[in-house]
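Bug #77: duplicate submission created two jobs. Keeping one. Sequence:
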Amino acid sequence: MRSGKSRARARGYTYLAMLVAVAVISAGLAATGEVWSHASKREKEAELLFVGQQFRQAIAFYYEQSPGNGKQYPAKLEDLLEDKRFPSPRRHLRKLYADPITGQPDWGLIEAPGGGIMGVHSRSGAEPLKRAEFGLRDRVFHQATNYYEWRFFYEPPTMATAPAP
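Kept job's structure:
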């Protein structure tokens, strides 16, 4: 009779040990998932900064290399792929990148005062993880509450405002 009770107790302890093991493994997996999620989001942010800089640079080249005296911004993003204003078309951008945050190629466009597109921004309203250590051109991003406020645009030096003190 004693051996029956001790077996039941042993099974109870084994069951309890299995429950604890499952709880510990679940907590570990949850922590790993959160770390992976943050790493993925940081990677997307880095890609957004790279792609935004590519658009900014391409728009600057398009504007600064305008033939004649009148500088102009591209009318559409596709103009950056093939600039037909020259006898031999120029490519200011290799491809139209998708927004790394949304995964869609539908960028928000920043219109230039005289017409055309002077920049792009993400359409995502998600909150960024990165809040500091931006480059000089992107220093205002540290105040952004969402990716929509990360605006990549080109202003010619004569139009640019003086940097804040």
